[in-house]
Amino acid sequence: MHCLVLALFSMLLPDSVLASLPAPVNVSVISVNFHHVLRWDPGPGTPPGTQYMISKRLDDKRRLNSTTTSLKLKLKNYYKYHLNVQAYYNQTWSPVSNKYTFSPFKDTTIGPPKVSLAGCGNCIQINMSLPEADRSSGINDIQKFFTAYFRIFCRRGKETVPQSFVFYKML
Ligand SMILES: *[C@@H]1O[C@H](CO)[C@@H](O)[C@H](O)[C@H]1NC(C)=O
Ligand SMILES: *[C@@H]1O[C@H](CO)[C@@H](O)[C@H](O)[C@H]1NC(C)=O
Ligand SMILES: *[C@@H]1O[C@H](CO)[C@@H](O)[C@H](O)[C@H]1NC(C)=O
Ligand SMILES: *[C@@H]1O[C@H](CO)[C@@H](O)[C@H](O)[C@H]1NC(C)=O
């Protein structure tokens, strides 16, 4: 039923509307250690040379302008952003893309800790550290920022269940 309605609807639309600029699709943020990159795909049939305007928040008139389909963003760590992208070509604006909601402190992925091990007689010395945050975040130490702790699994001999230790502070 939906297909039929859509087909009838598109037959009624004039060519100029069908040929207009499509909205960008697949808007998302790839963010690791507070390095945020917004990316999107041009809607089908988007001509080369199209420009894109990026809004970070719904109520924000300031927009970023890009000729590529990805853009590194400088964001405030505790804000909640509603990102969207609009295409612009030859005096024509596309509809606005779907919005993508992103909060840096919740949604960034923290890379794995760096770990090094050394034997010291009948003990093991383990050093652990988290990766550095992107400079634009102003975060000096990701571990302090999140009050993160490390969980260490240690398996002896043929034990099937590893022992686990939790460290809240770096030693
Ligand atoms: C959007 O993403 C989907 C899934 O990755 C992909 O199949 C599709 O081709 C993308 N759309 C465009 C216009 O590139
Ligand atoms: C985007 O920026 C370029 C260079 O600053 C400018 O020439 C162009 O007009 C801008 N596009 C829009 C749609 O504002
Ligand atoms: C831009 O739009 C005008 C009027 O719609 C059209 O005549 C012209 O061919 C277009 N130019 C390009 C490069 O698409
Ligand atoms: C751990 O860090 C301490 C202090 O920086 C250093 O002396 C030691 O060699 C390191 N151990 C390992 C296993 O990396």
For CATH, the homologous superfamily of the largest domain is named as: Immunoglobulins
**Sheet with most strands:** 5 strands, antiparallel
Which structural class do the helices and strands define?
Answer: mainly beta
Strand content: 35-45%
Indicate how many domains the architecture comprises.
Answer: 2
- Bound chemical compounds: 2-acetamido-2-deoxy-beta-D-glucopyranose
> What's the helix count?
4
- The CATH architecture of the largest domain is Sandwich
Furnish the topology, listing elements before pairings.
Blueprint: H1 2-12, H2 15-18, E1 25-32, E2 35-41, E3 51-55, E4 63-66, E5 70-73, E6 81-89, E7 92-96, E8 100-102, H3 104-107, E9 114-119, E10 124-129, H4 142-146, E11 150-154, E12 163-167
Antiparallel strand pairs: 1-2, 2-5, 3-4, 3-6, 6-7, 6-8, 9-10, 11-12
Bound molecules: 2-acetamido-2-deoxy-beta-D-glucopyranose (4 copies).
One 2-acetamido-2-deoxy-beta-D-glucopyranose binds next to strand 3.
Question: How does this structure look, described?
Answer:
There is one protein chain. With 171 residues, the chain is mainly beta. It folds into two domains: 2-107, Sandwich (Immunoglobulin-like), CATH 2.60.40.10; 114-167, no CATH class. The chain is built from four helices and twelve strands; from the N terminus they run H-H-E-E-E-E-E-E-E-E-H-E-E-H-E-E. It has helices at residues 2-12, 15-18, 104-107, 142-146; strands at residues 25-32, 35-41, 51-55, 63-66, 70-73, 81-89, 92-96, 100-102, 114-119, 124-129, 150-154, 163-167. The strands form four sheets. Strands 3, 4, 6, 7 and 8 form a five-stranded antiparallel β-sheet that branches. Strands 1-2-5 form a three-stranded antiparallel β-sheet, with no helix packed on it. Strand 1 and strand 2 form a beta hairpin. It starts with a helix and ends with a strand. Residues 3-18 have low confidence and may be disordered. Bound molecules: 2-acetamido-2-deoxy-beta-D-glucopyranose (NAG) (4 copies). Residues 116-118, 125, 127 line the site of one 2-acetamido-2-deoxy-beta-D-glucopyranose.
